[in-house]
């Protein structure tokens, strides 16, 4: 079984998502997308698999989003993808692809919806937020 995470190790959400995947018993293919960005074709495939649009995947915080005026609705999907290709930091993360689906895992516990084994036992995020309690119940 192949699970792929488009990961940024400097992002807490991405680190928590990776930890949940590993706690499920899987070792994913890890793609540090800032070092190895997806091809345009792969990015289009990921967006389609998520059932979204390029705008849904744009990251605003800590990116050139505002400087480039990407909030303006004038930009087409193809143009937004061009911006993401030129500035991979604009691609929101983490994106996880499993045999059960592809999702932007924000918040990180979204990954549980697409893991083959979502019963990972108790899990607490880096910041202390409990995702799954000691009894195995998902905390929402």
- CATH H-level superfamily title: Glutaredoxin
Unreliable sequence segments:
none
Number of strands: 6
Distance between the termini: 28 Å
CA radius of gyration is 16 Å
Number of helices: 4
CATH class value: Alpha Beta
Mean pLDDT: 96
Per CATH, which architecture? 3-Layer(aba) Sandwich
In one word, what is the shape? Answer: globular
The proportion of strand residues reads 15-25%
Q: Might you state the CATH topology name?
A: Glutaredoxin
User: Sheet bearing the most strands, described?
Assistant: 4 strands, mixed
**H/E series, N to C?**
EHEHHHEEEE
**By helix and strand content, what is the structural category?**
alpha+beta
Helix content: 25-40%
Task: Please tell me the total number of domains.
Answer: 1
Oligomer: single chain
Strand order of the largest sheet: 2-1-3-4
Give your account of this protein's structure.
Helix content is 26%, strand content 15%. With 140 residues, it is an alpha+beta fold. It has a single domain (4-132), classed as 3-Layer(aba) Sandwich (Glutaredoxin), CATH 3.40.30.10. A hairpin with a 2-residue loop joins β3 and β4.
């Amino acid at each position: 079984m192949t699970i792929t995470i488009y990961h940024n190790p400097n992002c807490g959400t991405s680190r928590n998502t990776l930890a949940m995947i590993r706690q499920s018993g899987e070792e994913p293919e890890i793609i540090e997308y800032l070092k190895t960005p997806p091809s345009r074709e792969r990015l289009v495939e990921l967006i389609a698999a998520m059932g979204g649009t390029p705008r849904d995947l744009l990251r605003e915080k800590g990116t050139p989003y505002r400087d480039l005026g990407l909030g303006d609705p004038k930009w087409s999907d193809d143009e937004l993808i061009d911006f993401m290709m030129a500035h991979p930091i604009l691609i929101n993360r983490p994106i996880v692809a499993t045999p059960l689906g592809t999702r932007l895992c924000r918040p990180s516990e979204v990954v549980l919806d697409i893991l083959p084994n979502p019963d990972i036992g108790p899990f607490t995020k880096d910041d202390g937020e409990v995702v799954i309690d000691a009894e195995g119940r998902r905390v929402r």
